[in-house]
Design goal:
The chain is of the alpha+beta class and 472 residues long. Helices cover 36% and strands 13% of the residues. The longest helix has 25 residues.
Length: 472
């Protein structure tokens, strides 16, 4: 992003933004002799060095933008975590809830820095930090769409009633004032993790003990959801988050089916009754009638996910989405031992039972799946650096938006399908990286020239590629 403000203009915008108290701004200007700074970038770097601003915030201010850093007078937007079909996911600070020091996470990635042994969770120049949360909001394109709002609210309400170690927890849900009126938002626990889809993209495939452990953890979370009348309907590696210690959480209940849900009709009006899910992992009966499924559909999808984790390949590669859906109904995928000849026969038997085409031939509960996998499961730590993860995601989201813009120029909007089954999930050769149902971004301008990049408008800050480069 090209600098659009002067040094004094930057300080004025910073004061108006509410991000840093006026007395702290004055103190930093005095202590760092910023009155003699050459330009606004030098001033921005000083505040980022002290971790009073994140790189995302600094670059937005350098672009002349000072509004909408706060949502509902409570959540301070720190950075972008992801971009999904419905909207953006932000990393935000809950200013009303202090961070629990026992679980405080290293925040150096917010400044584009690599995690180090000496990284501190709370820099000395900052006030005691609030709890980090993932803040999800609809894009302006969807914030007045009754059907999308129904889906969003359904996800929030479902998440609020589920409490399990293997499910990402929804903390808050409400409405706030947007550009065009009231808009909905939700916050979820911030889990510093990567998706299993990302992990597979880097590693190709997982060892069978590790894959069994991930699947067993997801099954445990699904059992809790099913016991509370919730069917996920979009179980796939992109919705499994894995932390450094190997702990796994299932995310994205945006397509979930709940008992006696009045909002299911709204979803059906958007996506159609027949096909809700992801083509690579959808159960045969779910593609026929997504409104008439139970937890066994999730077990099938988890089986397809386990197949993918073990082999590095989705069950039916090289087909179009409609062909994949039909293949789940009528065909058997390539034997897993073709890819993993060393796989124990009992694990193969568990996998085949999970992926049985007829629901009556599968495990009948997710708890049964968990118990069947545990004897073969082994927890494994995962190494990743959030700064690197965010950089990869920024490249991915830029590519996604450019492709979407190109597609819109080629295809009239009226001819595009909103059916969720039209979305394909690839492991090998895929440039998409997901987190909280999003592909994400990291890149910034203060450190280096930014690419031309303008994501869709959102209610909180609309990020650009340049909003994420670390002042150095």
């Amino acid at each position: 992003m090209t600098q659009t403000v002067t040094r004094d203009g930057f300080l004025n915008l910073l004061a108006r933004s509410g991000l840093v108290p006026a007395d702290v701004i004055a103190a930093v200007v005095e202590q760092d002799a910023l009155h003699s700074a050459a330009d606004a970038v030098a001033v921005a770097r000083a505040f980022v060095r002290r971790r009073l601003l994140t790189t995302f915030q600094a670059n937005r201010l350098l672009g002349g933008k000072h509004r909408r850093f706060f949502v509902a007078d409570r959540y301070k937007v720190l950075d972008v975590l992801g971009l999904g079909g419905m909207g953006w996911v932000y990393c935000a600070e809950d200013t009303h809830t202090p961070q629990d020091t026992a679980c405080a996470s290293d925040r150096s990635w917010l400044w584009g820095k690599k995690r180090t042994a000496t990284s501190s969770a709370a820099p000395a120049t900052c006030n005691p930090p609030g709890r980090l949360v993932a803040l999800k909001m609809l894009t302006e394109k969807h914030e007045t769409d009754a059907g999308m709002i129904a889906r969003f609210e359904l996800e929030a309400q479902t998440g609020m009633k589920l409490r399990h170690d293997n499910l990402v927890r929804t903390l808050d849900f409400g409405r706030t004032e947007g550009i065009y009126g009231q808009v909905v938002y939700m916050t979820q626990e911030f889990f510093e993790a990567i998706s299993v889809e990302e992990l597979l993209k880097w590693t190709g495939r997982l060892s069978w003990p590790h894959a069994c452990d991930i699947a067993a953890q997801v099954a445990a979370g699904l059992h809790h959801a099913h016991s509370n009348g919730v069917v996920h309907r979009d179980v796939k590696p992109g919705n499994f988050l894995i932390g450094r210690d190997g702990h796994v959480k299932l995310i994205d209940f945006g397509l979930s089916l709940t008992e006696h849900s009045e909002d299911e009709f709204s979803l059906a009006m958007i996506f159609g009754h027949d096909c809700l899910g992801t083509a690579d992992f959808i159960a045969p009966e779910q593609s026929l009638n997504s409104m008439n499924v139970d937890g066994r559909a999730d077990i099938y999808s988890l089986g397809c996910s386990l197949y993918t984790m073990l082999s590095g390949h989705v069950p039916f590669e090289g087909l179009r989405s409609a062909e994949k859906v039909a293949a789940h109904r009528n065909r058997t995928p390539k034997p897993i031992r073709h890819y993993v000849p060393e796989l124990p026969r009992p694990v193969e038997a568990v996998l085949m039972r999970m992926m049985a085409r007829r629901p009556t031939d599968r495990f009948q509960t997710a708890a049964d799946v968990c118990l069947a996998l545990l004897p073969f499961a082994k927890r494994k730590s995962v190494r990743f650096d959030m700064a690197d993860v965010m950089a990869r995601r920024m490249k991915s989201v830029k590519r996604r938006i450019q492709q979407a813009q190109a597609a819109r120029r080629r295809i009239p909007m009226s001819s595009t399908s909103l059916t969720a089954c039209s979305l394909q999930s690839r492991v090998r050769g895929s440039d998409s990286a997901t987190l909280h149902d999003t592909a994400v971004a990291r890149d910034t301008d203060v450190a280096r020239p930014a690419d031309t990049f303008s994501p869709p408008n959102t209610t909180p800050p609309q990020p650009t590629a340049a909003d994420r480069s670390a002042p150095q």
